[in-house]
User: What shape does this take?
Amino acid sequence: MVQEVLINNDDYYVPDANQLVTEDDTPVDNFASEKQQRLLVGSLYSSLQQQSFLAAANIGIYHTDGQPAIVPDVFLSLDVQVPENWWEKQNRCYMVWRFGKPPEVVLEIVSNKEGDELDKKLQIYEHMRASYYIVYDPNQQLGEKVLRVYELRGTRYFETSEIWLEQVGLGVTLWEGEFEGRQDHWLRWCYQDGNVLSTGDERASQAEQRASQAEQRTQLLAERLRAMGVDPNTL
Assistant: This one.
């Protein structure tokens, strides 16, 4: 049983972080799942630079005193940040009582039929009161649906066909393309217009393309001026 300690000399008790398992050094996942996790987390940090949030993969969430952590493949929590000293024991994982709320989005990537994504995990996230629970099943291990989205309404999860997550101002979409040299189908965050959140590499490529187009326009203008007998270097 997790011990409790009194802090700040008031009546608010929290579990003692020194008694919690914040990491166990077990292997994380398979290649495909790990790359998918990085795509989801990395694109958030590349595209939402003006917004305060915390997104992570394979980080434990402690949600109930006396219960072990649950470790979603990806989670997103808005308006919070990792404490400055993230090496301290109490700052190494997501403790709901320290951040003051559960993450808005928890996401599981199905690798086999043994993960209890539609049973035990769903119940835990429902009890934790995460606003959205997303199950991505690329190989259709759990049925015909590749993507399942559950929305918390009151105290219960309800499956919805809506992929726009109103409470977080983002959506999810299935996307075919290349990520880090791998052409495949991916799950990605998207804006309401359907455009996906760009990764750092995509943003760099887009900036390079815009610079190249600008240079081409400049050269074309210079050629037209020369055809008119005007030296562009004198302008």
